[in-house]
């Protein structure tokens, strides 16, 4: 049997730097755990625009459809702000999500013990926090029609449409219930059923799907209250399921609770392929951070943890994923810190690539 395949799309800004560290980790698993992958690499975002005039070439899209998992770094940068909307770096990312039909976006927000002081919230509010946001990723206002900027009388009007079909809600709800079953059997669904019909339907469908999961304690919350509760008492949540736009906002909020955006991975999953693996793309939650790109300052952990999610969700290697996550915790507990993690209590300052090396060393020590 051939090795499982991975397409790496480093993208822009710090993307290539953090991805270089992921490659060290992938190589380690090949050399030391007999888990070899066929890795190929291609362009996305501004990097693809510079070469092809589009943020994702058709050949790259086709490759992404064929591999077992895509790992993406980050896209965008000030250099591309002037581009037409249709070729902006973000469009490359959105095309991947849409054409691969990656409808379930898993965004864990986990507070690492060693970093609890970094949260803007009091330590006891966030210490031990471990929640999972499941964001619908291929529909809603991001993709609904009609959309555009139109002339209306003597002025223009900007239009986007929030649109959800029952089947779109159902499949992401099912993904969230399945996750809840594997975690603490607690799911909170967030929408604005008080003002939006799409929210009314969302609540109805999620409730209906819940009948198949009687063990899961399901609750519903208006998304604005959800934002407040996330900041007030985040530990009341375990799994949260919500739509594309609310999920975008709420996941940034949840991410910041944990103290560092440089730590958070994500998985975007679609339907199972012929080989049983889900269509999947893994990416850090952080952006391309152009202000620190190329300086060796970036924290590669979010991207490395994204590979851990790939091990767990695409390659059925939950134990190896845990090994990698534990190695990262160990390195943090030893005080090893990239610049974004350096607080008043100090620590061992390291560059992006030194952090990768430390994690590889911790993996070696785990054997
Ligand atoms: C995210 C980002 C993207 C989004 C952008 C880059 C298009 O904010 O993944 O959360 O809005 O979905
Ligand atoms: Mg976002």
UniProtKB/TrEMBL annotation:
Cofactor binding note from Swiss-Prot or TrEMBL: Binds 1 Mg(2+) or Mn(2+) ion per subunit.
Reaction equation(s) it catalyzes: (2R,3S)-3-isopropylmalate + NAD(+) = 4-methyl-2-oxopentanoate + CO2 + NADH
Principal location class: cytoplasm
EC number: 1.1.1.85
UniProt keyword S-adenosyl-L-methionine, yes or no: no
Residues the entry annotates as binding substrate: 97, 107, 135, 224
Subcellular location: Cytoplasm
Residues reported in the UniProt entry to bind Mg(2+): 224, 248, 252
Gene Ontology biological-process entries: L-leucine biosynthetic process
Residue ranges constituting the Isopropylmalate dehydrogenase-like domain according to the UniProt record: 5-359
Pathway: Amino-acid biosynthesis; L-leucine biosynthesis; L-leucine from 3-methyl-2-oxobutanoate: step 3/4
Signal peptide range: none
Binding site for NAD(+): 77-90, 287-299
Gene Ontology MF terms in the entry: 3-isopropylmalate dehydrogenase activity; magnesium ion binding; NAD binding
GO cellular component terms given for this protein: cytosol
Cofactor: Mg(2+); Mn(2+)
Site, Important for catalysis: residue positions: 142, 192
A Pfam family of this chain: Iso_dh
Subunit field text: Homodimer.
NCBIfam families reported in the protein's UniProt record: leuB
Annotated function: Catalyzes the oxidation of 3-carboxy-2-hydroxy-4-methylpentanoate (3-isopropylmalate) to 3-carboxy-4-methyl-2-oxopentanoate. The product decarboxylates to 4-methyl-2 oxopentanoate.
Protein name (database record): 3-isopropylmalate dehydrogenase
Species for this entry: Thioclava pacifica DSM 10166
